[in-house]
Amino acid sequence: MGKEIERKYLVRSDLFKPMATRVTYYRQGYIPTVNGMTVRVRIAGDIGYVTFKDHAIGFTRHEFEYEIPKEDAIQMLDLMCEKPQIEKHRYVVPATQPSASSASSDVSSDTTELKWEVDVFHGDNEGLVIAEIEVPSEETQFDLPAWIGEEVTGDKKYYNSHLCFKPFKTWAEK
């Protein structure tokens, strides 16, 4: 069973761009559900995906993602997904973890390579920039770069699925 444990932050500057190791254009949409689960269709670069997610408990939720033909993803986005859809560039930036000597003894010393995924939104969400970091456990420690702002983990208005229904351009206060 797949699990996703991630933290989300607003981004205060574009200082992350020179550190990016990869930049990919994304188009994604959501198929409506009646039970609050998320069904996402995505094209990342030249690859199509379909993803199923359940409700988050803390920072964790179950996630199942499958690669599908790009042509199928295009048709699903055009025919089955709500509008407007998400358009963004994703920048992948290596993350740093505190050294073992500075981490507390009761915190997991997981050596997994962490990375920031910084989404620069376009279209109806132009102006919004969010950074996510996926971690192996909720206790995993990591450093916050200077370009990271306020944490918005758990604030549903920053979920991509919510941004399709209430885009950033419609928010009264930003």
Topology overview:
Elements: E1 3-11, E2 22-31, E3 38-44, E4 47-53, E5 60-68, H1 70-79, E6 86-94, E7 115-121, E8 129-134, E9 148-151, H2 160-165
Antiparallel strand pairs: 1-5, 1-8, 1-9, 2-3, 2-6, 3-4, 4-5, 6-7, 7-8
Characterise this structure.
The chain is mainly beta and 174 residues long. It has a single domain, classed as Beta Barrel (Hypothetical Protein Pfu-838710-001). The protein is built from two helices and nine strands. An eight-stranded antiparallel beta barrel has the order 1-5-4-3-2-6-7-8.
Number of helices: 2
Strand content: 35-45%
- Gross morphology is globular
- Main sheet: strand order: 1-5-4-3-2-6-7-8
Question: What structural category do the secondary elements indicate?
Answer: mainly beta
Question: What order do the helices and strands follow?
Answer: EEEEEHEEEEH
Question: Do you know the CATH topology?
Answer: Hypothetical Protein Pfu-838710-001
Helix content: under 10%
Could you tell me the mean pLDDT? 89
Q: What is the CATH C level class, in words?
A: Mainly Beta
Biggest sheet features = 8 strands, antiparallel, barrel
Radius of gyration: 17 Å
Number of strands: 9
The end-to-end distance, rounded to whole angstroms, is: 37 Å
Please give the domain count: 1
